[in-house]
């Protein structure tokens, strides 16, 4: 006999969806970090046991929709394997905006300066793409996959050469 599904009221379901949005916003701030449910609940200011129960329900809902994944029991990370993501090499211009060269696309993907995260010139990045006002393809950096090795660091304590 099939397992009877637990009834979730419409109001409670709406609240769980809203908590799911808060969780995704919190986890996107540091997309490479692994969190347990208590860290997530504290990060979105849900402190009492009833609120933490709602956080657990929202985590299960996000996990079933594959927005987050469970790395080990009770540990969650945001799922970066989303449809519409591309990888490429980032190239900055003088204004701080960037373009990502992606193999297979003839045009580069524009990245606004506020959406480059901590990427630097020549890094290999994972980006999510979208069209802005029907114009060219635009994107936002999700994660820096590979840092370039030959960076020059200056030591100003001893004076410039």
Poorly predicted regions are none
Helix content: 25-40%
Spatial strand arrangement across the major sheet = 4-5-6-8-7
Give the overall form.
Answer: elongated
Figure out the total of helices.
3
CATH architectural designation of the largest domain: Orthogonal Bundle
Sheet with the most strands, sense and barrel status? 5 strands, mixed, barrel
Secondary-structure element series: HEHHEEEEEEE
CATH topology of the largest domain: Arc Repressor Mutant, subunit A
Count of extended strands = 8
Brief summary:
The chain is α+β, with helices and mostly antiparallel strands and 161 residues long. The chain has helices spanning 10-29, 37-43, 49-64, and strands spanning 35-36, 68-72, 75-78, 85-92, 98-101, 109-111, 124-131, 137-146.
What does this structure look like?
The protein is of the alpha+beta class. The chain has three helices and eight strands. The protein has helices at 10-29, 37-43, 49-64; strands at residues 35-36, 68-72, 75-78, 85-92, 98-101, 109-111, 124-131, 137-146. The strands form two sheets. The chain has a five-stranded mixed β-barrel with strand order 4-5-6-8-7. A three-stranded antiparallel β-sheet has the order 1-3-2.
Keyword list:
five-stranded mixed barrel; elongated; OB fold (Dihydrolipoamide Acetyltransferase, E2P); 2 domains; 8 strands; alpha+beta; 3 helices; 161 residues; 27% strand
List the helices and strands and how they pair.
Blueprint: H1 10-29, E1 35-36, H2 37-43, H3 49-64, E2 68-72, E3 75-78, E4 85-92, E5 98-101, E6 109-111, E7 124-131, E8 137-146
Parallel strand pairs: 6-8
Antiparallel strand pairs: 1-3, 2-3, 4-5, 4-7, 5-6, 7-8
Helix pairs in contact: 1-3, 2-3
